[in-house]
């Protein structure tokens, strides 16, 4: 059975081209969403020779921290579900790259078929983070990350003030929330369930902060079958098989100095890469293609 790779991209065309070329395998279909604000494919159309490539025509204006990121994930999932059944649906960013070959990736998921690769983080700061992001109302998240740092700071202070003032009047339904990275690999059944919950998700997670970190994890966590199928409940990035380092960056950008770590990692995909170090991008492609 084929795999569907769902890519959310907005810049760094060369990295995206590398990612697509590394996924260009007859066992894969690739679904690509380009942020509405980006025109990077205008003069550089994307193509594949083995995998089917679908570039979404309806594009979302993606804004960090608000519901637009969830809308983008739903657009990709819905488009992929139109084109058949898949063994797994993998959500990637345009700055991710595989750090295993396609044979190794397909073999891994075949050996662990039925497992849900959704990273779960319910650590020490989870309860505080959940109350802050999920139980308050956040009205101006569209404007919290612009090119003007001073403006971002003002908006964040206004957001915080409004959310605190309105707390006595806001009655949000309580849930057993879970959070984690939105880069996941889920089964056909789980993808269908997530899409079936779209109306609820868009309603409950509207006017929250960073809802893309919570919505899919919460759906899986509260579904007994999918929760039981989690690959790991205790290690967020082992759980989704992504190599992402938040200790050295936000997240850390992999460089040529990290070849040994990337080579010997048991993870399947790494995030993130940047064109400031083209050597590591070239090395990853040559090593894992």
UniProtKB/TrEMBL annotation:
One record GO biological process: heparan sulfate proteoglycan biosynthetic process
Annotated Gene Ontology cellular component terms: membrane
Location relative to the cell: Endoplasmic reticulum membrane; Golgi apparatus membrane
Pfam entry (one): Branch
Membrane topology: Single-pass type II membrane protein
Keywords: Disulfide bond, Endoplasmic reticulum, Glycoprotein, Glycosyltransferase, Golgi apparatus, Membrane, Metal-binding, Signal-anchor, Transferase, Transmembrane, Transmembrane helix
Transmembrane segments: none
Entry annotated with the keyword Signal: no
InterPro entries reported for this sequence: Glyco_trans_14, XYLT
Presence of the UniProt keyword Disulfide bond in the record: yes
One function term, GO molecular function aspect: metal ion binding
Domain of life: Bacteria
PANTHER family tied to this protein: XYLOSYLTRANSFERASE OXT
Name of the protein: Peptide O-xylosyltransferase
Organism (species): Segatella hominis
């Amino acid at each position: 059975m084929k795999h569907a790779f769902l890519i959310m991209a907005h810049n760094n065309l060369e990295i995206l081209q590398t990612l697509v070329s590394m996924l260009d395998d007859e066992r894969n279909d690739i679904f690509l969403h380009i942020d509405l604000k980006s025109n990077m494919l205008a003069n550089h159309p994307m193509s594949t020779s083995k995998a089917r490539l679908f570039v979404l025509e309806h594009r979302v204006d993606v804004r960090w921290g608000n519901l637009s990121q969830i809308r983008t994930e739903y657009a990709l999932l819905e488009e992929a579900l139109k084109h058949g059944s898949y063994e797994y649906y993998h959500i990637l960013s345009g700055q991710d790259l595989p750090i295993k070959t396609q044979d190794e990736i397909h073999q891994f998921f075949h050996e662990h078929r039925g497992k849900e690769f959704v990273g779960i983080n319910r650590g020490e700061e989870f309860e505080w983070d959940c109350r802050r992001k999920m139980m308050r109302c956040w009205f101006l998240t569209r404007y919290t990350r612009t090119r003007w740092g001073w403006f971002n700071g003002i908006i964040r202070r206004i957001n915080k003030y409004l959310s605190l003032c309105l707390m006595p009047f806001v009655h949000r339904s309580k849930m057993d929330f879970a959070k984690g990275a939105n880069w996941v690999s889920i089964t056909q059944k789980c993808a269908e369930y997530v899409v079936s919950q779209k109306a609820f998700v868009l309603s409950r997670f509207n006017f929250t902060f960073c809802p893309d970190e919570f919505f899919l994890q919460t759906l899986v966590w509260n579904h007994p079958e999918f929760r039981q199928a989690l690959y790991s409940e205790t290690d967020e990035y082992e759980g989704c098989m992504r190599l992402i380092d938040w200790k050295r960056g936000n997240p850390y950008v992999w460089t040529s100095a990290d070849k040994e770590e990337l080579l010997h990692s048991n993870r399947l995909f790494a995030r993130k890469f940047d064109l400031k170090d083209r050597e590591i991008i070239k090395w990853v492609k040559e090593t894992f293609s």
